[in-house]
Amino acid sequence: MTRLWIVRAGKHGEQELAAIEQGRLLPGFANIGDLSGCKDRDAVLAHLQQALPQAGQNRRKNFAAQLNQFANTIKVGDLVVMPRKLTNGVAIGEVTGDYVFNADDPYKHSRTVRWRQEAVPRDTFKQDLRHSFGAFMTICEIKRNAALDRVRAVLETGADPGALLGRQGVLTTHTAEDEAEAEDYATDIEEIANQQIVSLIKSEFAGHALADLVAEVLRVEGYTTKTSPPGPDGGVDILAAGGTLGLGEDRICVQVKSGDGAANHDVVLRLIGSVSNTQASTGLLVSIGGVNAAAQKELDDNFFKLRLWQMPDLLKALFRTYEDLSDESRAKLPLKQIWAPISAGDE
Predict the structure, then answer these.
(1) What single string gives the DSSP state of each residue in 15-70?
(2) Cβ distance 223 to 216 under 8 Å?
(3) Average pLDDT of the segment spanning 114-141
(4) Number of structural domains, the chain?
(5) How far lies 46's CA from each of 100, 110, 122, in Å?
(6) Percent of residues in the chain assigned helix, strand, coil, to nearest 5
(7) Mean pLDDT over residues 19-41, rounded?
(8) What pTM was estimated for this model as a whole?
(9) Could you say which of 187, 208, 225 is where a domain stops?
C-alpha cells in the first residue's frame, strides 16, 4: 500500500539542490553511522545510544523513530514531499531505491527518488496540507485528510481538491510510536508564518512590484537606488550605490526574479555581464524561486562578485527594515512581531 512521507533536506535546506540534482532523499543525520543492520526501531535506538551518548533519551527516541522510518518503513513506490526552505515550493517524488549508507558520501544516508515535480508552490495546496508540511520533523508520514490522494491529484491536475477527496477510503490503520504522522508533531510556527508572508509578498508585489520592494529595502539600508521601468530590463532591475549622493565605491547591480521557477545559469551570466556594463562592484540576484544547480555553481565561482537572495534572505532583509518602509508598503504587507517558545533542537 502506497504511503506519503515528508523527508526534508537539512534543517536549513542546505541539501535541497543536491537532492534535486542527484535524485536522492538526503535527510542529514551525517553524525550517525550505518543503519543497514538495524532492522527495527529498537535496533536503531540501540545504535544511537552508542552514536549519541550525550543526547537525552527522548532525543534519541525521536531520532530513532525518524531514522527507522527512513531506513526500514518507507518503501519503493511511496510518494515523498520535500518542503523547500530556500523557496516557497515543495518537491514531490516517488521513492525508487532502498536505504543506502556511504561513509565517503558527505550526506551519508540516502535513498533514490524520481522527482515528479521539483517546485510546486505551496499555495497550490489547501491550508491543512500546508500545515502538515510545517511539521518540525525531518521525516514523518502524512496520512490524514486524504493527503496521499490529494498530492496525487496535484501531480495529475495541478490542483488540490481538498480533504473531501477520498474521504470514504482514508487510511485508518493504527499509528505506532515510530509511525506518528505530521499532525502528531509540533509545528514550526516560524516556518508557517514565513510561508504566509511569502504568499502575501507574491500576491501584493507580483512581477515588477517586487523590484520596487527590494529597491525600497535597499534605500532603507542606506543606498541610493535607480529602478528600471517595467518591461525588458537587459538584466538590470535596480542600480544601488552607497556613499554621499550614491557616488561611493559600493555599487550594486540587482536582478529580481519574481516567478516560481528556479533561476538558471543564463540568468547568472546575464547578471555578470550587467555588472561589467554598469561598472558595478557587485551583482545581487534576488530570486523567489531559488536557483538551479548550474546557477548556484556559477554564483559560487564568482563569490567575490555576486550575491544571492533567496526567500530566507529577502525575509531577513525585510524584517530588518520593516519599521522604516513606507506606509504604502507596510499597508500591503501588514506584519507584527511576536515572541514564541521554541522546541528542543531537531536534526
Answers:
(1) THHHHHHHTEE----TTS---TT--SHHHHHHHHHHH-TTS-HHHHHHHHHHHHII
(2) no
(3) 90
(4) 2
(5) 19, 21, 38
(6) 40, 20, 40
(7) 95
(8) 0.83
(9) 187
